[in-house]
Design brief:
The chain is an alpha/beta fold. It has 16 helices and 13 strands.
Amino acid sequence: MNPKMTEREIDPISSLLKRVAPEMVDLIESRYNILSVVSFLQPIGRRMLSSKLNMTERVIRKEANTLKQQGLVNFTLDGMTMTENGEEALELLRIFFRDLKGIRHMEQVVAEKLNIKKVIVGSTILGNDELAQKEMGKSGAAVLASHLTNNSTIGITGGTTVHAVVEEFAEDEYSYPDTYVIPARGGLGKKTEYQANTLVEKLAGKINSHYKLLYTPDVLSKETIETLKNEPEIKEIIDLMERIDVLLFGVGEAQTMAKRRSLPAELIEKLEAKGAVSEGFGYYFNKAGEIVHEISTIGISLEVYKGLRTVVAIAMGPEKAEAIISIAKLNPNLILISDESTINKINELV
């Protein structure tokens, strides 16, 4: 295939293949998955590749030899690596495979059902959360990078999916010296590598921008919040939160987030009784996007969130489908990045 072919040109080819040689679909998917994993984890040996894809080493050896003969991968002492032709072929296969599985159509259908700006299936890798998260991180980084401008304020939350996005940003490729990156809310979690402050500092370093950190617990009493607002550093970052124009955040499922925030057991039971399915911006929401409980926290306000024109949510896992549906009701400008199984689940529920 010509590496300069467009999605419009690929569409009829994939349609023809489905009609004339449907037995080729499994073979294409197998080689697409092999190239995807090699691209993400290179250099990688056959045994590791076999483990990641749940294929026998014999099958991996056979397919890898074919890919090498076509000039798409190289064999080294450390394992398989991608060639330049291989990376180009992978990009074409990604478009081709998405059309073959009807993914682009599904994105449009779910975006219309949720009444949001855009849905992106950021991963089609099934059965391997690690690789799916890497692929989604790559998609998220591309979306966020396309919305970066100088003299803007970028807010990000913590979490593993947001971490995956930050990790996929290339070093020294961007420069926004008049831009600020800030945490969208206080800290949460024991692993510092996934906390908002850590991700803020890392992203700011990658895009050469300013940053501010927020050293407060995630949940505070209202009295404590009012006291902290008088602290110059806290006041400065709260003022910056009011100026956020690009937000990247992970979607929180209500029960999971309540337990992470160590809420009392009786309150968690009340949240469940009230139908809480999602958490964000200082509130717990039901399936209809209605507020069922408020928590005291320092972070981007719900009012600011509702007014944002560039807001990107990234979430993975069918168990988060109801939470995503709930959060989607709060801002029609939402760009949702998720994995194939989650988008399919949302389509079933809506």
